[in-house]
Amino acid sequence: MLNEILLTFIPMFFTVDAIGILPIFASLTQGISRQEKQAIIFQSLVTASLVAMGFIFLGHMIFRFLGITMGDFMVAGGVILFCLAMVDLTSQGKARRGSVTELGAVPIGTPLVVGPAVLTISLMLVSVHGLLVTLIAVFLNIAIVAVVFYYSDVLMSFLGRAGSRALSKVMMLILAAIGVMMVRRGIIEIISRAHSL
User: Fold this and answer.
1) Alpha helices, DSSP H only, in 30-151?
2) Which of 15, 53, 72, 128 lies at a 20 to 30 A Cα distance from 182?
3) For residue 147, what is the enclosing H or E element?
4) pLDDT above 80: residue 2
5) Which of 85, 123, 118, 133 is closest to 12 using CA atoms?
6) Span 65-91, mean pLDDT?
7) What integer pLDDT is reported at residue 96 of this predicted model?
8) Dist CA 143 CA 107 (whole Å)
9) Under CATH, which number does the domain 2-196 receive?
């Protein structure tokens, strides 16, 4: 069980990229009171959790209804992860500032904490490792995001924007590799499924 959680936690950790979204969170919440910041953190974590759980529970039902196999999804998901990683590696930022009242839900909760990449890999991990293990991995990573957000001022003074961006780029490179791995596994599954028919 512990090994399964670890195998699920690691790709999820690189996909969520808590350190990578730290400078964006810091810039979005700059100049607001501590109380407002804590409310935004709470709102973002609740939004991220609800979106992730909703997709994990309903994703497979939608796929069955549409006739999409896991192999199809792994190839499509792998391509999306790779493209998202490439966009992140070649861009400067991920989000713009919005209204303080809705900042926690959009853009921080989604798509910053839980975006297309997290939803894609969550559904893939459910099919490989099971529902319970995937949910544990999701909530562990959201808990890490909570700690990073809460101590954002301390972490930003320690890492600096340049250090945080450098770490984020390394994580995105690993995410691109995970995307390639998903495409490879998806193709293998599609081929083996075609041979068994």
Assistant:
1) 34-66, 70-90, 116-129, 131-150
2) 53
3) helix 131-150
4) yes
5) 118
6) 81
7) 45
8) 18
9) 1.20.1250
